[in-house]
Amino acid sequence: MKIKYWLIGILFLPMALMAQQKDLTLQDLIPGGKNYAKFVPKNLSQLQWNGDAYLYAKGDTVWTSEAPKWKKSVLLTKAGLNEALEAAGQKKVGSLPRFSVPYAGQSLLSFMANKHLYHYDYATKKIVADYTLQPKWENYDFCPENRYLAFTEGNNLKILSPENQVTDVTNETADGIVCGQSVHQNEFGIHKGTFWSPKGSALAFYRMDESMVTEYPIVNIDARCAKVEPRRYPMAGMKSHHVTVGVYQLETGKTIWLKTGTPKEKFLTNISWSPDEQHIYIAELNREQNEMNLVCYSAVTGQKEGVLFTEKDEHYVEPQHPLLFLPNQPDQFIWQSERDGYNHLYLYNTKGELQKQLTKGEWVVMDVLGFDEKGENLFISSTQPSPISSFGPDHGPLSVKTWSLNLKKGKSTCLAKDAVLTGVHNTQLSGSGKYLLDNYSSWDIPRKIVLVDTKKEKEITTLLTAENPYKDYEMPEVERGTIKAADGVTDLNYFLVKPLHMDSTKKYPTIIYVYGGPHAQLVTGGWMGGVSGWDIYMARRGYVVFTVDNRGSANRGHAFESVIHRQLGVNEMADQLKGVEFLKSKPYVDADRIGVHGWSFGGFMTTNLMCSYPDVFKVGVAGGPVIDWSNYEIMYGERYMDKPQENPDGYKNSNLKLKAKNLKGHLLLIHGDIDPVVVWQHSLGFLKACVDANTYPDYFVYPRHEHNVIGKDRPHLHEKITRYFDDYLR
């Protein structure tokens, strides 16, 4: 079923009327390709705020523009930066480095070069701070309030003073003890292991004991004789690591440990400091991941002070955001939760009393950008439908816009009035909250960057309007719409790319590109709508390419995603088969030549579809595929499947080794041999099952690549995939 508004007929990607018959290669269309940068819409490099002045890099120059006149001027040049470095007795840089703003509103930029962290004052044109770094240091975390730099060396945590004095925070020597690094397999929004207090007097950090976790053998073939470099990998149903939180006081040089108690196998997530530095809040999740307690601890004694509130769900709870305290009300904070079915904002006090729900509706808060100066208005990114557009795709995950939310009145205002209402808006908020940098695109707008006045709710000026990078090339037609899910009720978004110069009297081979799992959305409202360079390449070679976001994928609410719980692959495949039904209704689709391709969860889906519906799918290419969820890590795996001991039928039904005997078509499996996410054991185990069952998949390994094949080898990967479909589906 197609959606009922005008946008859903056939949408033509922008193309010149007299486009030349130019070729597009994988080096043009795939990340890592030699010419790939030419086919990405132009952008403003390093665009960011410093107070109410924005800056960006172009060539060897950093430009800036500041309120209220917004007159553009040169902030610094590579030549000027090198003069400052030479004057400080330092080596020059060959190109402009990546900058950040360490102190909002001050004339300082921070950058790393030549194993140093520098602070450059662009007002005085001098290097004003120089932190000397060592090759083995990692996980840097700079604190503007005290000018100290936290870092890890090996499995220990240390800090570097502005005078380049190193202090050991931990001195762990036992194997399997890791301090100051991200824990819990980077799930639950965790991406680092250190947390400076608001005033910089203390440093909270993770300590992870993974000595009880089984080591998985990663083999390094670069050595003269290949050697094992084991990694701790907690598989579903097995022992998990134990995590605690330390608080290091700079003044005393002592560490106290939060008394998080038992059970030790739980997840300590979303660490947050109170504004007065007296308390630390942790969202504690049980191993079953169906109950979360927001717990307050004393940052001084480590004692547990109380549970503010508890969240439970019959499927799973997934906290991903720390507390956000109101600027002028240190006893109130904002909490993000899916408790009503969609990710929304809730205002609490520090007693754990709910003050009110700030956002509500069948839409999702995607991001919180910050407050205005008075703390009266909060700026968010969300899929909230615009009140002035009740038709078209201005709803759901295809439309992501920026809103201001008045905390007292509860009124929300869309700040994309002068921009396209559909599409995806990625915005940055200025220091005062008076201005936004809105970087947006839509199906037919490659990129536009505008400056927005948040109070007047209007654009001030346009910083960039990118040209269509394909304007000189003939492009395939793209159809977009919705089909019904297997439940007969839910609309699923899809796109369909038609072969270039399609002859409506002919039938064409079709490839379904699939991911299908949580935390991913393939069909978007942004530029090209999610159509990838490889999709274009294959359409130009005479293929139909189809993608549908089945139930279980992201940004549609908790019920939409959690339908996969305890039965991974079941509802996802049912929805993909609805996509096959839709394709077969097209007169130009050859029902006997349908292929499928995906990576990671998409690799699981590809292999599952090939083995579960061998008479439907003729060819498949599965990259980094999960084959047996009992071999996947605890945090992600048990969230969606529970433990193998608790859900034996679910694990059995999703174990693709047991389906290897059903394989009929041509299936190519691809894996990186040092994959730390979906370990190599998965695809190797499937090969063994196929040998035992006398079925015959094909196999290719990318040596020294992890979960994704990246860099210059990525075009090679897509050439390999393309050749396989050409050989067996074309």
TrEMBL record:
<dbReference type="InterPro" id="IPR050278">
    <property type="entry name" value="Serine_Prot_S9B/DPPIV"/>
</dbReference>
<keyword id="KW-0732">Signal</keyword>
<dbReference type="InterPro" id="IPR029058">
    <property type="entry name" value="AB_hydrolase_fold"/>
</dbReference>
<feature type="signal peptide">
    <location>
        <begin position="1"/>
        <end position="19"/>
    </location>
</feature>
<dbReference type="InterPro" id="IPR001375">
    <property type="entry name" value="Peptidase_S9_cat"/>
</dbReference>
<dbReference type="Pfam" id="PF00930">
    <property type="entry name" value="DPPIV_N"/>
</dbReference>
<dbReference type="InterPro" id="IPR002469">
    <property type="entry name" value="Peptidase_S9B_N"/>
</dbReference>
<feature type="domain" description="Dipeptidylpeptidase IV N-terminal">
    <location>
        <begin position="115"/>
        <end position="446"/>
    </location>
</feature>
<protein>
    <submittedName>
        <fullName>DPP IV N-terminal domain-containing protein</fullName>
    </submittedName>
</protein>
<feature type="domain" description="Peptidase S9 prolyl oligopeptidase catalytic">
    <location>
        <begin position="534"/>
        <end position="729"/>
    </location>
</feature>
<dbReference type="Pfam" id="PF00326">
    <property type="entry name" value="Peptidase_S9"/>
</dbReference>
